[in-house]
Amino acid sequence: MNIKLLTLVSSTMLTVACSAPSEARTQIRIVGSSTVYPFTTAVAEQFKRTNPQFPAPIVESTGTGGGIKLFCSGVGEKFPDMVNASRRIKASEVAGCKAKGVTGIIELQVGLDGLSIAQSRKANFPGLSEVDVYKALAAAPFGKPNTYRTWKDVNPRLPAIKIEVLGPPPTSGTRDAFNDLYLLKGCETNAAMVALKKSNEDKFKNICTKLREDGAFIEAGENDNLIVQKLSANPNMLGVFGYSYLEENLDKIKDVPINGVTATYANIASFKYPASRPLYLYVKAQHIRAIRGMKEFLVEYSKESTWGRQGYLSKRGLVASPDAARKRNAQIARTGAVLNPASIH
Length: 345
Description:
Layout: H1 3-19, E1 29-32, H2 37-50, E2 58-59, H3 64-71, E3 82-85, H4 91-99, E4 105-120, H5 130-137, H6 151-154, E5 165-167, H7 173-187, H8 191-199, H9 201-209, E6 217-219, H10 224-233, E7 238-242, H11 243-248, E8 253-255, H12 265-269, E9 276-284, H13 294-301, H14 304-307, H15 323-335
Parallel strand pairs: 1-2, 1-3, 5-6, 5-7
Antiparallel strand pairs: 3-9, 4-7, 4-8, 4-9
Helix pairs in contact: 2-13, 5-7, 7-9, 8-9
């Protein structure tokens, strides 16, 4: 059975299932990334104002990994319709979706974000490099046990302050992005690690991305507002989260420059900021016919007045994608074109 026919059959089955009075769900349900959560919540609020005939969507902050797991668990009214993601979906997750009958996935890049490292406004922590971050937080930097206790141990130009960094848990897409944008970059400055990547990729990933468990890195859950509160209260602590939370709380915190570049809208939009990353919304195409309002919701999300340079999401800290990317993704939102699994590496 080809994909188009399978999608039609599954969609028809879902429509029948959702029409049963005992099982009917009338609200769009969205799970996933805590980073994308405030943006999608804002779209949900505007969608309800613009389309009063539809119930307000339910948006839950579960973390990217946990959200994709829920999203990929099956087709039907008890499974989410969409998932926010602060990283791109993985090939293994697409395969997991397919195994559970989720065969039509629409991928929208909704904007950009900068994965910032922040400090209290009372602090005067200088800039960091990816190597500094890796050496400070890796369990075994470059394959040797981590004995660094202060930032000055890591780099003589840094202050003699105990290493304490609040960050996301393993289920978070922000954690995956932190691995890619900081830890791997820092690790790959070492020639031996680059060689190890070619000979033993599993060992390479373990050395490069396994974090310390002695209190230097502190998992703070999916509540980025809690990190802001703790940074504000402790000038010696650093925290990792998306630019939107930094931008919203500039009265309490400020960023630590990375390689001399500050986390600003312009630097992230131009990818000058080293830790710039795209943000995504994944949509279950098989649910579009069954759950009322999904098409209209995607139209609302993809308006220039929503995710454009002057859109209302920019006022909440979302960095607009480049013009060509917005145009391409708006077309996907209108047509419902599904993701080609072969494009995921």
